[in-house]
Specification:
NADH dehydrogenase (quinone) (non-electrogenic) activity; iron-sulfur; 2Fe-2S; 4 strands; Glutaredoxin; alpha+beta; 2 domains; 160 residues
Length: 160
């Protein structure tokens, strides 16, 4: 079945998605909560998932796509097992976040928005993460690394 190609695009997960839709569809403003749960379930929001949500909530596909692409929390592409966020806010940028990002891109051989071939890491550049006193800051999954220099990156990645 074509709907179920990909790492998490299984029949079982689509059944869970149908349950999420059913549980939320009578709720006002159901789309964003459904998208959040769907992304947790699949790891991203591919076309097949968006289409199922649109049909289940009886809303236009364009509305689902519009919301999914408007909010940076949502992604339409698969992400790595470990999501690396590099703060590019003013404090971090002034203290060398661009050099940290360059080192990550060099070591992982991917660009911002990319995922390594083995599916282990994804990199994103974010706005202020609210840890300006620790600038420059990188967050991997939910772990914050601060006061970084490019030479720290290889050692941090080796932990994963």
């Amino acid at each position: 079945m074509s709907c179920c190609q990909g790492k998490n695009l299984t029949e079982e997960n689509f059944k869970k998605l149908d349950e999420i839709i059913e549980r939320n569809k009578s709720r006002k403003g159901a789309l964003i909560p459904v998208l959040h749960e769907a992304q947790e379930l699949f790891g991203y929001l591919p076309y097949e998932v968006q289409k199922r949500i649109a049909e289940g909530l009886n809303i236009p596909m364009a509305e689902v796509y519009g919301v999914a692409t408007f909010y940076t929390r949502f992604t339409l592409k698969p992400t790595g097992d470990h999501k690396i966020s590099v703060c590019m806010g003013t404090a971090c940028y002034v203290k060398g976040a661009d050099k940290i990002l360059d080192k990550l891109k060099e070591l992982l051989k991917i660009d911002v928005g990319g995922t390594t071939e083995d599916g282990k890491f994804s990199i994103e550049a974010t706005r202020c993460l609210g840890a300006c006193g620790l600038a420059p800051v990188v967050v991997i999954d939910n772990t914050v690394y601060g006061k970084l220099a490019p030479e720290d990156i290889e050692n941090i990645l080796s932990r994963y």
